[in-house]
């Protein structure tokens, strides 16, 4: 969305009216809209199929609220009554239509275990998880870009080999292993960070950061590794292009060559990786939130899955799908803005 | 292809490590020096002659538990990879031949599966469909299958449009014969790469699930479960998580190295590259434009 605003603002900026820049900006706006339309066309079927599979889980699972509320010794009549009360005796497609209608209005239904509104429960956990995930993404992008750029600028030297080796090591460390190591060393061993729990940002930015730093670092290593690797190889490839030689011959400064020619053309794969990494970031939050004792989205998913609370699990999956789709939309928009070649593909 | 992989040093190392892990999985319960389930009288002991890796909070021997738990991890990750292979490759090849509707349908399905956070989905499905590592791994295999779908589809597309396949079709060859004779040969190398990668991913997923206690019954030892129980006693035994964590990491690393080695030796570039290892060093030098970016 921010990209669209930027694009809309741009035609006004050059005061000299119908300059080439203005035309380019108008063209750019159309491009962004086209990207949004194409991404939406791609993601609507994704969303429908994914939610359908999610909903079909209940019939496949054979779980019912009656089991949770009445226990194992319930009479068939009591079970039938509870199921009718939850609307589970209607045809499958009617239930699905009803549910998807609610989902589109932001209503995910009520939990089987305590009847609470699932949207509210997920909203509570999402604040925690999104803080951690955002910080993880920031760390991942900053560190990944720094490492990848460093390795590409000093390629085939010992610095490059050191960075590549480091990236290989951190790419094989699962998030929960990193989490345990961080807890053992920084929280239990040195006492620098709290080992578990969460503090609202309203109670102070310092404690809030202290509580989410370790889980964010644990989540981010995977992103760091992938972004650094992709960026290094695409930057190295971009440096081999003829236009870089041409720019050198024209006497452009190394800094200008790097930022306007190499980085802009080499950015695409790294950004695309970011979009692909987001689902695993959401998935890994299940494990990291367990380690760090955060009452977040992933923890809620794990708890409701283990207690057989099907509507809650469905809600979690829907929210995660929406998150992934939204994030990929943003990545596509940035990609379309940064690297014009990216939208010829898809 | 096996011989070519083994002629690379990295390939040799990876194959050796994976062979050792496989051996542990096959004979781990026999090698275990003590009963992995028997509680001892010295809980949380440090490493010693009797317990090489110490004991856990119930006094059980950690080395025995590690060896005994390797089978779950290895079998689980193999199951993920093989499920993904079957679920991904067959529609991947068929999507080129079965017409546009099937192609569109499978492409959309692959898009969908990629968008699902598979760990979250695995947790959900396992919890809802019954507690068992087998179901968990089958579902995860389906969720990671788009990798195989894409890889096999891309290779099949490339081969299906090549002149010699068209020549074969013109001279009356059946589609099935073309697939068996030409397509499979081209599809196998990228699939082998994807398979090695997926086994590594499978290890991470199995460990994550068992870490959360999903898919196994409590007393049974698993690598992830060992880490989870160590987490509670970090104060007493800060070095306890090292052994299972290292095992997981080394296995995943070996899978990745094997995937890289396979990629290096498959295809024309890889074959040429292997003939003279000096050629590779030379090519790197040459590819570097003189004062690139003026950084030196």
Write structural notes for this entry.
The complex is a heterodimer of chains A (346) and B (296). Helices cover 76% and strands 0% of the residues of chain A. Chain A is mostly helical and 346 residues long. The longest helix of chain A has 42 residues, at 20-61. Chain A is globular, with a radius of gyration of 25 Å. The model of chain A is unreliable at 1-18 and 342-346 (pLDDT under 50). Chain B is mainly α and 296 residues long. The longest helix of chain B has 37 residues, at 175-211. The radius of gyration of chain B is 23 Å and the shape is elongated. Mean pLDDT of chain B is 76; it is low at 268-296. In chain B, helix 2 crosses helix 11, helix 6 packs across helix 9 and helix 10 (223-231) packs antiparallel against helix 11 (242-265). The chains are: A mainly alpha (346), B mainly alpha (296). Chains A and B meet through helix 2, helix 7, helix 8, helix 10 and helix 11 of A and helix 4, helix 5, helix 9, helix 10 and helix 11 of B.
């Amino acid at each position: 969305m921010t990209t669209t605003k930027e694009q809309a603002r741009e035609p006004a900026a050059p005061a000299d009216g119908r300059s080439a820049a203005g035309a380019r900006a108008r063209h750019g706006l159309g491009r962004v809209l086209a990207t949004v339309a194409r991404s939406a066309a791609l993601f609507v079927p994704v969303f429908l199929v994914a939610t359908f599979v999610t909903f079909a889980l209940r019939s496949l699972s054979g779980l019912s609220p009656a089991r949770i509320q009445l226990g194992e010794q319930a009479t068939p009549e009591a079970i039938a009554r509870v199921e009718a009360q939850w609307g589970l005796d209607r045809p499958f497609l009617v239930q699905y239509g009803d549910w998807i209608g609610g989902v589109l209005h932001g209503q995910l239904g009520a939990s089987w275990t305590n009847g609470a509104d699932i949207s509210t429960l997920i909203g509570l956990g999402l604040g925690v998880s999104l803080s951690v995930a955002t910080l993880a993404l920031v760390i991942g992008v900053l560190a990944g870009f720094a490492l990848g750029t460093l390795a590409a600028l000093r390629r085939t030297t010992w610095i490059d080999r050191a960075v590549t080796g480091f990236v290989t090591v951190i790419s094989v460390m699962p998030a929960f292993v990193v989490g345990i190591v961080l807890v053992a060393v920084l929280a239990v061993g040195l006492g620098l960070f709290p080992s578990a729990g969460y503090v609202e940002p309203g109670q102070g930015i310092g404690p809030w950061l202290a509580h989410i730093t370790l889980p964010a670092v644990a989540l981010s290593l995977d992103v760091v590794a992938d972004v650094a690797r992709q960026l290094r190889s695409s930057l190295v490839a971009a440096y081999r292009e003829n236009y870089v030689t041409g720019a050198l011959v024209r006497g452009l400064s190394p800094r200008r060559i790097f930022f306007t020619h190499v980085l802009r053309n080499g950015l695409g794969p790294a950004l695309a990786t970011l979009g692909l990494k987001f689902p695993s970031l959401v998935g890994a939050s299940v494990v990291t939130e367990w380690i760090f004792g955060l009452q977040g989205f992933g923890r809620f998913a794990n708890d409701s899955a283990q207690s057989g609370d099907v509507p809650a699990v469905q809600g979690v999956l829907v929210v995660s799908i929406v998150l992934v789709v939204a994030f990929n939309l943003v990545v596509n928009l940035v990609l379309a803005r940064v690297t014009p070649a990216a939208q010829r593909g898809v | 292809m096996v011989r070519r992989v083994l002629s690379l040093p990295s390939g040799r190392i990876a194959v050796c490590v994976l062979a050792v892990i496989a051996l542990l999985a096959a004979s781990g319960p026999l090698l275990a020096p003590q009963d992995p389930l028997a509680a001892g009288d010295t809980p949380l002991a440090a490493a010693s002659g009797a317990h090489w890796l110490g004991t856990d909070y119930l006094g059980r021997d950690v080395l025995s538990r590690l060896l005994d738990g390797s089978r779950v991890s290895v079998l689980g990750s193999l199951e993920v990879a093989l499920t993904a292979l079957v679920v991904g490759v067959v529609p991947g090849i068929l999507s080129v031949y079965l017409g546009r509707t099937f192609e569109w349908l499978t492409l959309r399905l692959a898009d969908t599966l990629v968008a699902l956070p598979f760990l979250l989905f695995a947790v959900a499905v396992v919890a809802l469909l019954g507690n068992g590592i087998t179901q968990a791994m089958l579902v995860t295999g389906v969720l990671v299958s788009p990798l195989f779908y894409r890889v096999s589809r891309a290779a099949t597309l490339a081969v299906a449009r090549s002149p010699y396949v068209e020549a074969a079709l013109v001279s009356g060859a059946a589609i099935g014969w073309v697939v068996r004779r030409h397509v499979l040969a081209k599809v196998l190398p990228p699939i082998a790469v994807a398979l090695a990668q997926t086994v590594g991913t499978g290890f991470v997923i199995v460990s994550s699930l068992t870490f959360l206690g999903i898919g196994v019954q409590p007393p049974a030892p698993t690598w992830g479960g060992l880490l989870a129980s160590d987490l509670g006693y970090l104060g007493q035994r800060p070095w306890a998580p090292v052994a299972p964590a290292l095992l997981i990491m080394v296995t995943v690393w070996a899978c990745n190295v094997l995937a890289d080695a396979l990629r290096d030796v498959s295809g024309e570039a890889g074959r040429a590259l292997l003939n003279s290892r000096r050629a590779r060093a030379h090519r790197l030098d040459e590819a570097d434009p003189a004062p690139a970016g003026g950084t030196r």
